[in-house]
């Protein structure tokens, strides 16, 4: 374990940005999002970023083929993006865990090359969650916001005058080595202060309004849950706007479309949402004919299908869907209803 004094933090960023593109959570008019680091930006590790950082590995839209017509011939060209090595500093533990969850989808055979390239180029530095928000419930999914064991390459804790730095992977060790002139060894006093910080986080997490939410209250076999009358009740107000899926760090559905530029055309993929009426629309029609069926798909996937396939829930309790839904519907209400709590 190492540490960096807070008054040397700019120096650290300068060093990192020599070898990597460095992205940090920057506050702008009360909204925090990841942006490229530059001197004197307003870094904020306390407010949750408005959107999740999944767009670094799974951008909202990306081109993967170009095609050109020459007479009757069609020339297809693969597009390979030259992604620089990058560092994402200050990722919340819930968002870091979400990278792990979408890895199960994109990195299993057949591996998604666009995702893999971006994932391999990034170093994730996750920060202990010192200011969990009222809408947070990561502990319901066994995520430890005071010390995440996997999902990031380096884990940091903010103390009064320093930042404690713990590499967790080979990539993390590599970056740490490059910074050995700036990082210092921790001492007994730092470790004591660190324990206090961790204890404070544990206390805050226990006191959150959603701390007792338990997805394991959802019982019953797949058919029973699928046919449950709860879906009629919870889906009634859903507008199908897709906001919940776009802000969700674990949602990963996409559509493939062509841009017809006459002689030079592009094939690109872009985020899609199971809440949209044309999602899964095929030549014969759409297998999900109403909003209830679309709504059920989103939550059955997160709470039943994905855990059945991968052994964990596809939600990290970041709370963004609670904040963004225009009709105040969200996964918490679904868990409570399906689990018989309300
Ligand atoms: S479903 Fe909601 S709380 Fe869960 S990860 Fe997605 S946005 Fe966050
Ligand atoms: S944000 Fe709310 S209204 Fe919009 S699709 Fe999601 S649940 Fe439905």
Automatic annotation (TrEMBL):
The 4Fe-4S ferredoxin-type domain covers which part of the protein?
A: 227-259, 305-337
Q: Cross-referenced Gene3D superfamilies, in alphabetical order? A: Alpha-helical ferredoxin (1.10.1060.10)
Asked if the keyword Iron-sulfur belongs to this entry, the reply reads yes
Q: Would you say which domain of life the source belongs to?
A: Bacteria
Q: Which UniProt keywords apply?
A: Iron, Iron-sulfur, Metal-binding
Matches recorded under Pfam families: Fer4_22
SUPFAM superfamilies (alphabetical): alpha-helical ferredoxin
Q: Write down the PANTHER family for this protein, in alphabetical order.
A: ANAEROBIC SULFITE REDUCTASE SUBUNIT A
Protein name as annotated: Ferredoxin
Q: Which organism is it from?
A: Acetoanaerobium pronyense
Query: What lineage is on file?
Result: Bacteria, Bacillati, Bacillota, Clostridia, Peptostreptococcales
């Amino acid at each position: 374990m190492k540490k960096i004094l807070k008054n040397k933090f700019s120096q650290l960023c300068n060093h990192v940005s020599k070898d990597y593109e460095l992205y940090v959570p920057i506050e702008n008019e009360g909204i925090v999002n990841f942006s490229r680091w530059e001197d004197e930006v307003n870094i904020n590790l306390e407010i949750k970023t408005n959107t999740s950082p999944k767009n670094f590995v799974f951008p909202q839209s990306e081109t993967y083929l170009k095609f050109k017509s020459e007479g009757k011939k069609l020339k297809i060209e693969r597009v390979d993006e030259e992604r620089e090595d990058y560092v994402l500093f200050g990722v919340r533990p819930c968002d870091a865990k979400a990278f792990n969850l979408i890895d199960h989808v994109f990195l299993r055979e057949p591996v998604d090359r666009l995702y893999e390239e971006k994932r391999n180029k990034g170093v994730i530095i996750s920060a202990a969650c010192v200011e969990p928000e009222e809408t947070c419930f990561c502990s319901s999914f066994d995520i430890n916001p005071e010390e995440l064991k996997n999902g990031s390459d380096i884990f940091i804790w903010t103390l009064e005058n320093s930042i404690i730095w713990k590499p967790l992977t080979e990539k993390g060790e590599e970056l740490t080595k490059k910074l050995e002139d700036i990082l210092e060894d921790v001492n007994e006093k730092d470790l004591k202060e660190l324990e206090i910080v961790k204890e404070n986080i544990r206390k805050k997490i226990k006191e959150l309004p959603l701390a007792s939410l338990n997805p394991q209250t959802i019982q019953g076999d797949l058919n029973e849950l699928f046919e449950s009358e709860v879906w009629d009740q919870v889906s009634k107000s859903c507008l199908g706007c897709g906001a919940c899926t776009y802000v969700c760090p674990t949602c990963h559905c996409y559509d493939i479309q062509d841009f017809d530029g006459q002689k030079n055309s592009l094939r690109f993929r872009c985020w899609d949402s199971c809440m949209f009426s044309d999602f899964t629309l095929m030549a014969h029609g759409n297998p999900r004919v109403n909003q209830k069926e679309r709504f059920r798909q989103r939550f059955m996937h997160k709470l039943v299908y994905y855990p059945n396939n991968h052994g964990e829930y596809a939600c990290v309790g970041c709370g963004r869907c609670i904040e963004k839904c225009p009709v105040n519907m969200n996964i918490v209400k679904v868990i409570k209803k399906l689990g018989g709590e309300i």
